Amino acid sequence: MFWEQKILYAVLSDVGFRRQNNQDSCSVVLAPDRENWQARGHLFVVADGMGGHAVGELASKMAVDVIPHTFDKLREQHPVAALKTAIETANADINERGTLNRDFLRMGTTCTTLLLSPLGAVIGHVGDSRAYRIRRRQIDQLTRDHSLVWELIEQRKVHPRDADRLYPRNVITRSLGPEPQVKVDIEGPAPVYAGDIFVLCSDGLTTLVNDAEIGMIAAELPPADACRLLVNLANLRGGSDNITVIVVRAGEVPSNASAPEIPVRDDSGGGGWGTFVVWCTLAVLFLVGTGLLALTEHKLVGSIILGGTVLGGLIWWWKQPKREALYVEDYETGGQSTIIWRPYRTALAKLTPDFVHLLAKMEVELHHAAVDERWPIDLAQRDDAFRKTQQAMTEKQYGRALKECARAIDLMMAGVLWERKQTQKKPKPTDPNASTANPPAKPTSPPTPPPANRESPESASKS
């Protein structure tokens, strides 16, 4: 990756519809100049606190403060080693803070960090917050969930389609804070190509929005619009947890720089049909050779076929690309050669008409509620966005339709949040002092979004 490559990013953190406070925290630290870029690069951090109310908030806030500060101080260390040390330092600080107060005992937080530097992309990870990469209409999950569900799936004790139904998704097996030491997963360095998109998010998003949907939205929309639509979609599906999203898009490589080309072969592994055909052919030859050797008099022919099959299989296996080590201590900071690692999960991120129709249907339902409940929103702007959505869908311009539909949904969400506030303000029936004779009148002027508990997409860190 190059210093001259522009980085477009956006951040949005939302309390959700079911929680009273936001236990998520996030931070973005961009290198101010070329010298700092060469030494440290750009750092993005998402943390999801655990332990209840102020305890979880404190743990996540400590993580997003300590990691960038410690990482920047460790200039004498290789950046990959420094990132790992910074996360371990945050764990030790959170653990120590927890032991000082009985109410804070075993407080913790997830942590997912993305480092973009001359090395490429490096991810440091603990917990079930995730990092994704979107490239060529494919979304790859680059982190492994440290959760009970994922461990049971890896141990083949439960089928992936049944895991979420049989076991709770929110049981975390590894996090920062509860223990004095923690094992940190380091992924990369891996290449960053022009147009690559990275998404860091807490599980408040991934519980309600699937990988393909995240990929379609982040690939088609600018980072700020993508963050808003992802958060809005999670909230419209229940908003059961805090939701934090960082979307980062790598810009074009400058013309005077020599950039590596994106490899034609997908790095997601597997081998495809070519590998399947080769191994089937070798298996058939192996059976033929064994049969000739054991059941007929043509033992020489059988031996030749059997030996050739084994030799061919070994040569084919040796020629296949091998998974490289995830962590390289002697990596050259100024180099452009990078390690490609395989994602833990992959999904298609190509925008489909069905997904746009789904969002449009959701927006129409919101519009009906807005009219019935007289939400104080700008219906003229909504009608303009909806008309443009319908026109783009008729013309099969689904990317443009998604953008206009996202704008309409964002306008509707201002009304949804206003309605929720009005509901919360209504006196409870059990309150003897409550009076329902004169309910509060609906305001004539629309609220000013975003509300106080939503972080601006242009902000780099959560206050």
**Roughly what fraction of the amino acids lie in strands?**
15-25%
* Largest sheet, strands/sense/barrel: 6 strands, antiparallel
Helix content: 40-55%
Based on CA inertia axes, which overall geometry fits? Answer: globular
The CATH homology group name of the largest domain: PPM-type phosphatase domain
The CATH architecture of the largest domain: 4-Layer Sandwich
CATH topology heading of the largest domain: Phosphatase 2c, domain 1
The stretches of 5 or more residues where confidence is low (pLDDT under 50) are 259-270, 322-340, 434-463
Task: Give your account of this protein's structure.
Helices cover 43% and strands 16% of the residues. The protein has three domains: 7-250, PPM-type phosphatase domain (Phosphatase 2c, domain 1), CATH 3.60.40.10; 272-319; 351-424. With 463 residues, the chain is α+β, with helices and mostly antiparallel strands. It contains 13 helices and twelve strands. The chain has helices at residues 34-39, 54-73, 79-100, 148-154, 160-166, 203-206, 211-220, 223-236, 272-295, 299-319, 353-373, 379-394, 398-425, and strands at 7-14, 24-29, 42-50, 108-109, 111-117, 120-126, 130-135, 138-141, 185-190, 197-201, 243-250, 345-348. The strands form two sheets. It has a six-stranded antiparallel sheet with strand order 1-11-10-7-8-12. It is globular, with a radius of gyration of 26 Å.
Topology:
Elements: E1 7-14, E2 24-29, H1 34-39, E3 42-50, H2 54-73, H3 79-100, E4 108-109, E5 111-117, E6 120-126, E7 130-135, E8 138-141, H4 148-154, H5 160-166, E9 185-190, E10 197-201, H6 203-206, H7 211-220, H8 223-236, E11 243-250, H9 272-295, H10 299-319, E12 345-348, H11 353-373, H12 379-394, H13 398-425
Antiparallel strand pairs: 1-11, 2-3, 3-4, 3-5, 5-6, 6-9, 7-8, 7-10, 8-12, 10-11
Helix pairs in contact: 2-3, 7-8, 8-13, 9-10, 11-13, 12-13
